């Protein structure tokens, strides 16, 4: 049973490492030219080989598919919870499920808010208008690097119990020097 949980995560990490190593670090079909005065140092050379076929595959597999999976999985999970309640003839207690719904919405909205503008502009650029947001493309790609920085903060805000425990730990570790008058008794 544990394999059903860990194999997909392992495959996701392995795919990214293998794909980036083969097509960016040691590309077999071209030579990378980097421009270090740009935000993103230029694009990998496989974006321009074979009429951009590899770029389209990379875009669909590494960007569009995760966005679609995150969106549909979150919607499916909420529908599944409601459906299970209906099947078991239980009332849907939204107070109880509000926390789960809020956590799903908050975490996925951070990811979608930063990736969706870049993804939509790339789709428009590939399909109809090649110069659509071309000047802002580097900035939009740079903005997605804020996701790993913001997700821990967002996750902490969805767990108030954890925030309380962290605050208690911080308060305990502070050294408290109390200043006051003390009486010393002489014992003979």
Automatic annotation (TrEMBL):
Domain of life: Eukaryota
GO cellular component, one term: membrane
Keywords: Membrane, Transmembrane, Transmembrane helix
Domain G-protein coupled receptors family 1 profile, chain residue ranges per copy: 1-163
Membrane-spanning parts: 6-26, 63-83, 104-123, 143-163
Subcellular location: Membrane
InterPro entries: GPCR_Rhodpsn_7TM (IPR017452)
Protein name: G-protein coupled receptors family 1 profile domain-containing protein
Protein's organism: Adineta steineri
């Amino acid at each position: 049973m544990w394999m059903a949980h860990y194999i997909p995560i392992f495959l996701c990490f392995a795919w990214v490492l293998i794909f980036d190593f083969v097509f960016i670090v040691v590309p077999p079909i071209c030579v990378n030219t980097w421009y270090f005065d740009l935000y993103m140092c230029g694009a990998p050379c496989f974006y321009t080989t074979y009429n951009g076929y590899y770029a389209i595959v990379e875009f669909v597999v590494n960007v569009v598919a995760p966005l679609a999976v995150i969106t549909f999985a979150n919607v499916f999970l909420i529908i599944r919870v409601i459906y299970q309640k209906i099947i078991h003839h239980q009332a849907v207690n939204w107070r109880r499920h509000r926390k789960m719904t809020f956590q799903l919405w908050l975490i996925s909205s951070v990811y979608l808010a930063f990736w969706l503008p870049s993804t939509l502009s790339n789709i428009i650029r590939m399909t109809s208008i090649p110069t659509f947001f071309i000047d802002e493309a580097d900035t939009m790609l740079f903005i997605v690097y804020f996701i790993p920085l913001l997700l821990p903060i967002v996750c902490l805000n969805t767990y108030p119990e954890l925030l309380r425990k962290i605050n208690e730990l911080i308060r305990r570790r502070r050294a408290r020097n109390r200043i006051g008058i003390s009486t010393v008794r002489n014992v003979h």
